[in-house]
Design brief:
Shape: elongated
Structural class: mainly alpha
Strand content: under 5%
Number of strands: 0
Radius of gyration: 27 Å
């Protein structure tokens, strides 16, 4: 009887730990999404259209 109680308690503890881990991962994902949304737009280069379209690959 004691072995089954210990097994049940262990399973319950593991289930709680997994639930806490999932909640922690969800919070981290939300925080990462908020940080990404808070980033400013990258600077746009105001070059003429004919510049930057080709790269010389010979030396």
């Amino acid at each position: 009887m004691e072995t089954s109680n210990n097994l049940s308690a262990t399973q319950t503890a593991m289930a709680v730990e997994i639930a806490v881990l999932k909640k922690s991962l969800d919070l981290q994902a939300q925080n990462a999404a908020q940080l990404l949304e808070a980033l400013p737009e990258p600077a746009r280069y105001n070059n003429p259209p004919e510049l930057g379209g080709a790269v010389d690959t010979y030396a």
